[in-house]
Automatic annotation (TrEMBL):
UniProt name for this protein: Cupin domain-containing protein
Native organism taxonomy: Bacteria, Pseudomonadati, Pseudomonadota, Alphaproteobacteria, Hyphomicrobiales
Entry superkingdom: Bacteria
Amino acid sequence: MTAFLSVDAKSVEPESGAPAPDRLISGDPKFRTWNVEERDGGLYAGIWESTPGKWRIVYDEWEFCHILSGVSVIAEEGAEARTVKAGDSFVLRPGFKGSWEVLETTRKQYVIKL
């Protein structure tokens, strides 16, 4: 077994999802998630994609994101909204509360630590 793992959507079947109904603000966003790594202790890595829509987000986890394609607006309560697009990288820390709005279908690479 190799210790090198490529983060590639072709390597796993995607899981389908959507925001919880009580978090949905607008639209009908649909998610696809290619979770290529899952380790004991709550570490996850993979690719996530969403179609347009807006929903509330609350983070208990730490997440690194790198946007591969699309355009989204991430708004933290009490702070200025930020538009993210292909090439942008950022971290959402535990305690983040706000909204995620997908303007153009967005795909990101992620690493999550619970």
